[in-house]
Amino acid sequence: MTPRTPGARDKLAFLLSLVPYLLDRRQSTVAEAAAHFDVAEEQVRQSVRLIAVSGVPGESSQYQHNDLFDIDWDAFEERDEIIITHLVAIDDSPRFSSREAAALIAGLQYLSALPEQADRDVVGGLMAKLTRGASEAPIQVAVERGSTDGTLADIREAVASERQIEFTYINARDERERRRVDPLRIDSLDQNWYVRAWCHLRGGVRTFRLDRMSDVRVIDAEITHRAADVTLPDTLFQTSDDDVSVIVDIAKDAVPLIDEYIASTKPGKDPARVTATLRLAHIASLGRLIVGLPGQARVLDPPEARDRIAHWASRALSRYENDRPQPRDAAHS
């Protein structure tokens, strides 16, 4: 089929598309570009010649040599290859630093590893563009598969097939219980994954953290409660009359990390800190929360909570001392 003759608007649209195409490919033949855009090869050649006399005028409002795009003319005229050798305006656009690009690439690697992420080619292409577009080579990073990845895949399957699941759960009091639930929804918060489900043991909706679940098994039983049948609050954690109130002094920057637990805040003596009231289901869960904010949070009240954190820190220090290698002389004394 003979490509149609483009109008002025089509030519402009093609020209605006051709430049990023060439920058992304770094090198292309006229035939490849024509096939990609479904245009005549001569139109590609005309557009390339137009690109070569395009640019942005300098401070004098006149075009100098460095204000124009340039191509490898020998490659273009002798081998029909298109290679842009000088960019204008585009080179001046803000670029990600190597650390910023590495952080984004790490996030994309994590997304690519999720069970439901099927279009990995798109993610891979975006990672490649970030690598090329950074101000310097990004720091090499790799996202390791988490210990809950298999559990997450099983629960997603159960949610999709509306099947019940059974598992052993370690609650905030470090007690192990066997649970059977109707999984309703999977959520993530910070670095943790949660499943909201109707718990047959408790007779109500409960939130379970995946890294506290073990021996997960999808059973051949249809769920008895669906998401449309129960009320799922917008937040993962809900307060109740049985909750424990804990007052902490915390850095302002750390507040978003535990926002789900905060009932109220007020300014602290230090402008960079606030006094926050936390609502917790069990005082036993305070240790894990505070230890995740090293140097940023300090428990003020009640005394039971302060004692709990002191005991937690004492146990951790004791284990560190016991695990530390002994000096050679002491080992043989």
From TrEMBL:
InterPro entries: CBASS_pafABC_assoc_protein, PafC-like, PafC_HTH, WCX_dom, WYL_dom. Keywords: Proteasome. The keyword Transport does not apply. GO terms for cellular component: proteasome complex. PROSITE patterns: WYL (PS52050). Residues 243-317 form the WCX domain. Residues 151-218 form the WYL domain. It holds the Pfam family WYL. Residues 10-132 form the PafC HTH domain. The keyword Membrane does not apply. This is Proteasome accessory factor C.
